[in-house]
């Protein structure tokens, strides 16, 4: 009996520590390279905020972004939540463009017409000075390096039912094939479980969120316990993955919910350092 209680106590302590370490925002750096770049580029990924508030007027989150010294901020969806008040998202959206140019695509929670309609979401994001990529692309230059940044709306338009995959393929076709591009191409698409579809179109980099890091991790053993539309032990919970000739970054996101605690799964801002590769 004593051994059982001791084991139970240790398990509770282990989980409690795992919960505590998941609170501070972590800057998680990934180093990539490409022969298409003439100078290095530093990109911050802010995903799945779900209107979570970090300090007064989002100053903790914004401080982390400034600390990253990023050239760009990419937002692959779910900055706004379909249930939480908009305040946290609006505080972040209104201040982020002062740090670096921002690019955004919708996530599944922003395509649910509860607090605010999908079109109102995009209108509000644009009002903040952020570029909305809904089957659109934009080419920019950073220190002489050209980047083409693309994005698609999340395909889930109605409640919790997936729309036809063929519609998502059509969204990709609207953007066009990127295999022949001489510029470094980036796709913002919320769902990492659809990476096989996205990779067919020849992007150099795909940036996603949605999986929330699998919610629960056991470092060195389980990278993620459960993720939406991936189920138990998701293949793409969070991190750097390779799909065909495309690199996929899946953010573990910034969402905090009391009823879905994160265990050994810190909220994060992935920082992508993309360097020139000698030809």
From TrEMBL:
Protein name, as recorded: Metallophosphoesterase
InterPro entries linked: Calcineurin-like_PHP (IPR004843), Metallo-depent_PP-like (IPR029052), Metallophosphoesterase_sf (IPR051158)
Gene3D superfamilies named among the record's database cross-references: 3.60.21.10
Chain ranges of the Calcineurin-like phosphoesterase domain: 42-213
Lineage: Bacteria, Bacillati, Bacillota, Erysipelotrichia, Erysipelotrichales
Pfam families reported in the protein's UniProt record: Metallophos
GO cellular component: membrane
Molecular function as annotated in GO: metal ion binding; UDP-2,3-diacylglucosamine hydrolase activity
Keywords, ordered alphabetically: Hydrolase, Metal-binding
Species this chain originates from: Holdemania massiliensis
Top-level taxon of origin: Bacteria
GO biological process, one term: lipid A biosynthetic process
């Amino acid at each position: 009996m004593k051994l059982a209680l001791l084991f139970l106590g240790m398990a509770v302590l282990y989980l409690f520590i795992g919960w505590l370490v998941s609170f501070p925002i972590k800057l998680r750096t990934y180093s990539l390279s490409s022969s298409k770049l003439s100078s290095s580029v530093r990109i911050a990924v802010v995903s799945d905020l779900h209107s979570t508030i970090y300090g007064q007027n989002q100053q903790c989150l914004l401080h982390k972004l400034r600390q990253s010294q990023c050239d760009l901020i990419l937002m692959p969806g779910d900055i706004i939540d379909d249930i939480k008040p908009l305040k946290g998202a609006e505080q972040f959206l209104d201040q982020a463009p002062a740090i670096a140019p921002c690019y955004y695509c919708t996530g599944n929670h922003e395509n649910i017409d509860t607090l605010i309609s999908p079109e109102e979401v995009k209108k509000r994001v644009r009002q903040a000075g952020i570029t909305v990529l809904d089957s659109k692309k934009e080419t920019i230059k950073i220190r002489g390096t050209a980047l083409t940044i693309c994005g698609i709306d999340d395909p889930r338009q109605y409640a919790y039912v997936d729309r036809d995959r063929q519609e998502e393929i059509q969204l990709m076709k609207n953007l066009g094939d990127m295999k022949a591009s001489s510029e470094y191409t980036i796709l913002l698409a919320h769902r990492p479980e659809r990476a096989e579809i996205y990779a067919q179109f020849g992007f150099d980099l795909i940036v996603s969120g949605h999986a929330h890091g699998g919610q629960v991790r056991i470092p060195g053993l389980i990278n993620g316990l459960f993720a939406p539309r991936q189920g138990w032990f998701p293949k793409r919970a969070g991190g750097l993955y390779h799909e065909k000739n495309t690199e996929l970054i899946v953010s573990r996101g910034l969402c905090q919910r009391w009823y879905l605690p994160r265990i050994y799964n810190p909220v994060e801002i992935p920082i992508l350092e993309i360097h020139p590769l000698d030809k």
